[in-house]
Amino acid sequence: MFVFLNIQKSSEHSRFDAAHELGHLTLHKHAGAHGKEAEREANAFASSLCLEKTY
After folding, report:
1. Contact, 41 vs 23, CB < 8 A?
2. In this structure, what DSSP letter does residue 29 have?
3. Residue 27 region by backbone torsions, left for phi larger than 0, else alpha for psi between -120 and 50, else beta
4. Structural contact between residues 16 and 43, judged by C-beta atoms closer than 8 angstroms
5. CB within 10 Å: which end of the chain, N or C, has fewer?
């Protein structure tokens, strides 16, 4: 499996893209979700991984 990232994007956007794809690999490795639901789940995964906890 390969993940290609666009090097024209900012480092923050590239990190989110990488985390998003990691979300797909982690959450959907057995093709459990498709379409918009899979994208929503991968975005939620990436957001949780990339955002700092401030408490």
Report:
1. yes
2. T
3. alpha
4. no
5. C
